[in-house]
């Protein structure tokens, strides 16, 4: 995305949009850490509360526990607090009293047992924005259910609208529910921050990750409810345009996607195929016909694409205005000429080689997002954060360490 507004030299002097906002991060795995990472990228000071005995899950490398995933842990500070220790809970509560935002994604009831829930903390911090990110929310009959990405995809109905007819239920890879839940939580927090500017009051936000996934399926859910039948599983096809699909190209497992939006693009496609029977068949002149006979169209398109490289198919079709794109492998994405706008190399403490991290996919007109920094070492900022946030002395921190409250 190109940047408009101030020149880059002037933008660098403007603080990121969330500069000065303090976030206390009680999250783990992916959804919660992804939410707070977005806030950190936007300039917030995110203090991630961890313990060395609980660094499991997708957010860490199994063979190197000290090496956290920069997709969810970059740009944050790390503090170790033993939340099972009374003194640790008290320290966390004091940090909460000066935080702008708290984000947690524990199971229902965990934060209440620790006396770190919204009701316990809000009286000492009236402007606190508190976000709970459980799988099914903290009210209702499913509040105690355990949830993970795959469970939520099944519950939301996503797995039965993905894939083609006859396939078993298929999930969307890359922790879909975690990332979509994290995005929705970040949006909600930004809205709550804007509202707080007006009335000075904090908010409690109870986000159910299952509902985030259902919300993205809105049209399909409504269609099924109205028609009283399940939505068709279309694979790569569409209900309103044709042809659309992923077609084999020359080489081993090489593909190109084509999506014809209108009659003009269809005419351009038939010319680009160079004398294909597609051009003269009257059944295909309207979108209604193309939808009806898409099997036959696909067969003829495959006969054309399989003799060309995927780049050749893409070049020929895009040159005449037909939406087409080669299916890229990961190395092609990373090594493309525009990858530098998206990816950064980050050397995580404890690692001998850098991780590749994707930044926010936009730029701001009057300020900059925070340049990506590698994940902090576990507990790297414990002493500094306790001193800067709540004014503890070295002696007081030493005492907490001696009592086992900072582990």
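^ Assign residues to that structure.
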């Amino acid at each position: 995305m190109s940047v408009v507004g101030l020149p880059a030299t002037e933008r660098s002097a403007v603080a990121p949009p969330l500069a000065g906002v303090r976030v206390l991060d009680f999250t783990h795995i992916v959804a919660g850490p992804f939410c707070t990472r977005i806030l950190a990228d936007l300039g917030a000071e995110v203090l991630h509360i961890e313990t060395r005995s609980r660094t499991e899950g997708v957010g860490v490398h199994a063979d190197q526990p000290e090496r956290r995933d920069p997709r969810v842990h970059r740009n944050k500070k790390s503090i170790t607090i033993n939340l099972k220790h009374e003194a640790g809970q008290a320290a966390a509560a004091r940090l909460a009293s000066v935080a702008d935002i708290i984000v947690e994604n524990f199971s229902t009831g965990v934060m209440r047992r620790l006396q770190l829930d919204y009701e316990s903390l809000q009286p000492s911090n009236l402007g606190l924005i508190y976000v709970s990110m459980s799988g099914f929310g903290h009210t209702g009959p499913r509040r105690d259910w355990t949830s993970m990405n795959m469970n939520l995809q099944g519950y939301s109905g996503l797995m039965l609208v993905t894939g083609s007819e006859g396939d078993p239920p298929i999930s969307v890879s890359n922790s879909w529910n975690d990332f979509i839940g994290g995005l929705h939580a970040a949006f909600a927090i930004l809205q709550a921050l804007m509202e707080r500017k007006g009335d000075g009051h904090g908010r409690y936000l109870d986000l159910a990750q299952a509902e985030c996934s259902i919300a993205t399926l809105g049209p399909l859910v409504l269609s099924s409810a109205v028609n009283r039948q399940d939505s068709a599983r279309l694979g790569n096809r569409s209900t309103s345009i044709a042809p659309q699909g992923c077609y084999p190209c020359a080489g081993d497992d090489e593909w190109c996607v084509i999506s014809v939006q209108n009659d003009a693009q269809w005419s351009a496609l038939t010319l680009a195929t160079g004398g294909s029977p597609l051009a003269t068949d009257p059944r295909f002149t309207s979108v209604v016909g193309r939808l009806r006979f898409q099997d036959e169209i696909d067969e003829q398109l495959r006969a054309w694409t399989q003799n060309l490289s995927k780049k050749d198919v893409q070049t020929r079709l895009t040159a005449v205005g037909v939406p087409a794109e080669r299916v890229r492998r990961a190395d092609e994405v990373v090594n493309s000429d525009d990858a530098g706008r998206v990816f950064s190399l980050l050397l995580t403490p404890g690692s001998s080689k850098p991780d590749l991290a994707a930044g926010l996919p936009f730029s701001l007109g009057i300020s900059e997002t925070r340049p990506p920094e590698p994940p902090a070492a576990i507990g790297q900022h414990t002493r500094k954060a306790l001193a800067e946030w709540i004014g503890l002395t070295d002696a007081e921190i030493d005492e907490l360490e001696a009592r086992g409250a900072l582990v």
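The mean pLDDT is 86.
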